[in-house]
């Protein structure tokens, strides 16, 4: 029941949305085509009786007509299957698109992708958004479709099977027992027993599938990490260490795979035996009536077909057990991810007070900063900073200067007290983030590339990257093409384009020589005379350019 509850929580935003009328219409069409297939199957069951009776009676006159009927039924079924599957795929992608947008928004809003690691460890969110979301949409719709189809089979064929069963009388120990619809009862009892046995054998498939997704995602994440850090690995000659790390992750996949296939082996033995026995049970059950001449050969074949469909209706859980366990594993992973994202509560936020701060751009009162485990870093910290201030945050290495900078910028929420700001802000980390795309888009980040060519080229000239001015529309992996120093120059160019009112610089010139670092900081001071800037730096020459200093002890 917990899995059902989790699934409903995941499905509600899409299926209970008043704007998803098209999705409901598509679902109705998918189910309609499925039900039409069942309806044709009923006709085929009746055809079975007529065809086999004609064979038993050597009635060659009606056989050509019956064959034409059968070909017509097949044509209808094929058309219904093709149309239904096309609509099903359209519906699956519509739901996947909605789920993807929902999780993307939830993951990225309020920097939850950044804060999540402090609240709860969730492995591989990329895989959950890219893969699990698609699996949830596909498996949910398929399971629902086949559930409806099996239910329709049960309703459509149970009356036929009941009628073919006649009234059976048994004499046991001097007692007379009369059973109505005994073929229906055989199908029901057989399906219940097989379902219970299947669950007993296969109930461990769900945790094994969850573990499999974990292990596969960890291995893939390690491969991506090696690709992203290939330069560092090659510099250290660390290939053997990475091979060892990959082998460790792959051995975990192997161990899980062995446990999974061992469990699936048992499930498949039982499932294959169940399917083969199902072919003969209706034959053996109707054989006494056929031998007693109370049932024709056509009736016997019709009973076998009806029994199979009724058994499918009773045995949906049994037939789709493995897929149900895979679906439950997907629901569990997505529900855990959703729950973790919703649990990230950003209680402290930096407030933008345009009206009350007057000429003050950044104000902190009684600020105390903590680590995620509540260890105190700074207590009762206050400041008032205005435009044109260039403020050095100084102190011993490792004391928490960058943490204070992040707190004032609204990126660190483990604090008490009040922080108020006035105006736009931009935070530059030590390692710039360069997206893969055109240089124009890289320079404009985090804004859309709306700057004109003159603005972009001027910024590149100013930061010393004149050799790149003709490559604005070149699409490259710029984080690999540019050196560390060049990437920091790109970061400074972004500031010149964005022109924030409050700027936070966290070791943004530490990969540049002293002369270059000084030129870039002086450039910012010249180009942004009204900007408040807070700086963390270990370069003494850069420190001397600041007009204020806050020392953390």
Q: What labels would you give this structure?
A:
553 residues; 5-stranded parallel beta sheet; single chain; alpha/beta
- Provide mean pLDDT, rounded: 82
> Percentage of helical residues?
55-70%
Structural category: alpha/beta
End-to-end C-alpha gap: 55 Å
Task: Report the C-alpha radius of gyration, rounded.
Answer: 35 Å
Biggest sheet character: 5 strands, parallel
> DSSP strand (E) fraction?
5-15%
Outline type: elongated
Number of strands: 13
Catalogue the unreliable spans: none
Count helical runs. 19
Structural account:
Strand 4 (360-370) and strand 5 form a beta hairpin. It contains 19 helices and 13 strands. It is elongated. The mean pLDDT is 82. The strands form four sheets. Strands 8-11-12-6-13 form a five-stranded parallel sheet, with helices on both faces. Strands 3-7-4-5 form a four-stranded mixed sheet, covered by helices on one side. A two-stranded antiparallel ribbon has the order 1-2. The chain has helices spanning 2-15, 21-56, 63-108, 112-119, 125-165, 182-202, 205-228, 230-236, 239-291, 297-314, 316-319, 321-343, 401-408, 439-444, 453-462, 478-481, 484-498, 514-527, 540-543, and strands at residues 167-172, 175-180, 351-352, 360-370, 376-386, 390-395, 415-421, 425-428, 437-438, 475-476, 502-506, 532-536, 548-552. With 553 residues, it is an alpha/beta fold.
């Amino acid at each position: 029941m917990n899995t059902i509850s989790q699934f409903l929580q995941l499905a509600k935003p899409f299926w209970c949305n008043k704007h998803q009328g098209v999705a409901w219409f598509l679902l109705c069409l998918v189910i309609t085509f499925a039900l039409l297939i069942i309806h044709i199957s009923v006709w085929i069951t009746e055809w079975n009786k007529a065809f086999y009776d004609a064979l038993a009676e050597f009635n060659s006159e009606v056989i050509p007509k019956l064959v034409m009927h059968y070909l017509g039924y097949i044509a209808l079924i094929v058309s219904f299957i093709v149309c239904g599957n096309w609509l099903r795929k359209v519906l699956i992608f519509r739901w996947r698109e909605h789920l993807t947008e929902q999780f993307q928004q939830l993951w990225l809003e309020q920097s939850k992708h950044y804060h999540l690691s402090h609240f709860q460890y969730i492995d591989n969110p990329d895989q959950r958004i890219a893969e699990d979301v698609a699996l949830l949409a596909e498996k949910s719709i398929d399971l629902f479709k086949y559930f409806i189809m099996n239910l329709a089979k049960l309703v459509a064929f149970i009356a036929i099977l009941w009628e073919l069963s006649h009234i059976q009388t048994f004499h046991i120990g001097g007692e007379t027992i009369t059973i109505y619809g005994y073929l229906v009862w055989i199908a029901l009892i057989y399906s219940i027993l097989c379902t219970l046995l299947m669950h007993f054998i296969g109930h461990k498939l769900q945790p094994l599938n969850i573990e499999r997704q974990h292990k596969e995602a960890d291995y893939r994440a390690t491969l991506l990490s090696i690709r992203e850090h290939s330069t560092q690995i090659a510099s250290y000659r660390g290939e053997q260490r990475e091979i060892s790390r990959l082998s460790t992750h792959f051995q975990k996949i192997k161990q899980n795979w062995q446990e999974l296939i061992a469990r699936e082996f048992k499930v498949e033995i039982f499932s294959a035996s169940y399917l083969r026995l199902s072919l003969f049970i209706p034959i053996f059950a109707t054989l006494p009536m056929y031998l007693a001449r109370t049932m024709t050969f056509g009736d016997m074949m019709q009973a076998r077909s009806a029994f199979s469909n009724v058994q499918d209706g009773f045995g949906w859980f049994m037939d789709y057990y493995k897929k149900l366990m895979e679906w439950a594993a997907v629901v569990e992973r997505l529900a855990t991810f959703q729950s973790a994202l919703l649990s990230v509560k950003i209680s402290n936020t930096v407030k933008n007070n345009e009206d009350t701060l007057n000429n003050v751009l950044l104000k902190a009162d009684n600020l105390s900063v903590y680590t995620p485990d509540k260890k105190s870093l700074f207590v009762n910290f206050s400041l008032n900073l205005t435009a044109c201030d260039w403020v050095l945050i100084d102190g011993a290495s490792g004391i928490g200067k960058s943490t204070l900078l992040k707190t004032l910028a609204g990126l660190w929420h483990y604090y008490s007290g009040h922080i108020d700001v006035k105006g736009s802000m931009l935070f530059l980390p030590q390692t710039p983030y360069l997206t893969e795309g055109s240089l124009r888009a890289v320079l404009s980040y985090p804004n859309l590339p709306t700057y004109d060519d003159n603005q972009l080229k001027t910024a590149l000239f100013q930061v010393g990257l004149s050799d790149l001015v003709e490559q604005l529309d070149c699409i490259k992996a710029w984080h690999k093409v540019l050196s560390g120093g060049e990437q920091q120059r790109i970061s400074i160019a972004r500031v010149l384009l964005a022109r924030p009112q409050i700027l936070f610089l966290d070791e943004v010139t530490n990969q540049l020589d002293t002369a270059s670092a000084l030129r870039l900081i002086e450039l910012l001071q010249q180009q942004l005379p009204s900007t408040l800037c807070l700086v963390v730096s270990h370069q003494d020459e850069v420190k001397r350019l600041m007009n204020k200093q806050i020392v953390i002890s």
